Amino acid sequence: MIGVLIGIIVALMFILAILLSVLILFQDNKGGLTGALGTAGAESALGSRATERISRMTAYFVAVFMVLCLVVAVLKNQQRVVLPRKSLEPAPVESMAPEKGKAEKPAPEPEQ
Fold first, then answer.
1. What is the DSSP string of the chain?
2. What residue segments make up the domains of the chain, in order of their start?
3. Mean pLDDT, the chain, as a whole number?
4. Burial 39-64, CB ≥16 within 10 A → b, else e
5. Are 23 and 75 spatial neighbours (Cβ–Cβ below 8 Å)?
6. Are 13 and 21 in contact (CB under 8 A)?
7. How buried is 26 (Cβ within 10 angstroms: 0-12 exposed, 13-18 middle, 19+ buried)?
8. The Cα angle at residue 95 between residues 93 and 100, in degrees rounded to 5
9. Which of 1, 37, 5 shows the shortest CA–CA distance to 22?
10. What are the CB-based long-range contacts (under 8 Å, 24+) for 40-46?
């Protein structure tokens, strides 16, 4: 269940990263995307205060992106498999040694 939630959040982060890239390119009046499209393109889409609105939207999107990164980190931390303490203890040495009085059988010789 946590894996599905992480997948959905990562997909949202991917979309948000693309939107942030476009917004950041719209901010620079001297170059970037607004230089290619002209400043009138951003102002006609967002009104006369386009620069202020784009800056505010960028700040909000960055904040949401950072929160989503923290949420994914917490969810990934909860998703870890915790092994029981007993399985981490080493096996006793005596259990690995052959039992006393029982000799190991030699391997049969290959036939030619």
1. -HHHHHHHHHHHHHHHHHHHHHHHHHH-SSSHHHHHH-HHHHHHHH-TTHHHHHHHHHHHHHHHHHHHHHHHHHHHHHHSPPPPHHHHSPPPHHHHSPPTT-PPPPPPPPP-
2. 2-80
3. 76
4. eeebeeeeeeebbebbeebbeebeee
5. no
6. no
7. buried
8. 105
9. 37
10. none
In this predicted model, what pLDDT tens digit does every residue of 67-78 receive, in sequence order? Answer: 999 999 999 888
Token code pair at residue 23: 């917004």
CA-wise closest residue to 54 among 26, 74, 30: 26
| Residues near 23 by beta carbon (within 8 Å), at least 6 away in sequence | 54, 57, 58, 61
Does the predicted model carry a pTM greater than 0.70?
A: no
